[in-house]
Amino acid sequence: MRQQWNPENSNIYRGYFPVVPGEPSRKEAFGCGRDVKEDDPTVSKTNWFYEKSTWPVEDGTLPFKEFLQGQYECMHEACMELLRLCAIGLGIPEESLTDLFNPNPCSTFRILHYPPWVGEPPAIAMLEDGKVVTTPEHTDSDFMTLLTPFHFGGLEVMQANGTWAEVNTRPGSLIMNIGDTFSRMLGGRFKATRHRVLDIGEDRYSVPFFLSPKFHGDIGINFLSQYTEDGDAHVPERFGPWVLYTMKHKKKYFEYKVLPEFEDV
């Protein structure tokens, strides 16, 4: 895939991206989404959240595109089941959360490779205790993340007391993170998972599915008050503009600094 990467490709959000030199987030990845119909009137042509995925040329050995698209849908359905259970636990209608994702979620399915640092890592990747990160501490901006870690270590989560704990992997299991979007709309009832990835001294691989609502999905604060008489009134807010502003101007992710603004429909 790396050999087929074309830096002149017009895609800016989906597809392959290489390791960026000098950044503490040391990874390369391939990401895909669910393609929307070109004549969909609800999607702006310049909305890169919905740009078509670009795929490597296949040699017939493995149906790469078909496999990843199938895995995307499996992960999506698993998340929908989890959200139904969350809704039941919150005492709200079972489909009240899943409705935020149909028909066009902004979710991303990604294959990640974390190469170990070669030589002296940059100072911004080094921690006070001598550990080195390949992804600095952060919370995911999405709704929910399902992660396939395989057998690789290196993932740590911050505990309630502010200390870090390694996440032990188990064969055939997934790791779930709550994202900022979900936590915020519930007033922190579900807490966003602060985590980081350490350099383990060898190549590390993982496959996350970042569940994100449709661009116009209402993720405004006080979401539960639509179904209960408790608390302040719900304040509607669309997912797309909120998460774009958050990633570019609050979290200031380097991957998003160069992404263009676009006219919405």
From TrEMBL:
<dbReference type="InterPro" id="IPR027443">
    <property type="entry name" value="IPNS-like_sf"/>
</dbReference>
<keyword id="KW-0408">Iron</keyword>
<comment type="similarity">
    <text>Belongs to the iron/ascorbate-dependent oxidoreductase family.</text>
</comment>
<dbReference type="InterPro" id="IPR044861">
    <property type="entry name" value="IPNS-like_FE2OG_OXY"/>
</dbReference>
<dbReference type="Pfam" id="PF03171">
    <property type="entry name" value="2OG-FeII_Oxy"/>
</dbReference>
<dbReference type="InterPro" id="IPR005123">
    <property type="entry name" value="Oxoglu/Fe-dep_dioxygenase_dom"/>
</dbReference>
<keyword id="KW-0560">Oxidoreductase</keyword>
<dbReference type="GO" id="GO:0016491">
    <property type="term" value="F:oxidoreductase activity"/>
</dbReference>
<protein>
    <recommendedName>
        <fullName>Fe2OG dioxygenase domain-containing protein</fullName>
    </recommendedName>
</protein>
<feature type="domain" description="Fe2OG dioxygenase">
    <location>
        <begin position="102"/>
        <end position="213"/>
    </location>
</feature>
<keyword id="KW-0479">Metal-binding</keyword>
<dbReference type="GO" id="GO:0046872">
    <property type="term" value="F:metal ion binding"/>
</dbReference>
<dbReference type="InterPro" id="IPR050231">
    <property type="entry name" value="Iron_ascorbate_oxido_reductase"/>
</dbReference>
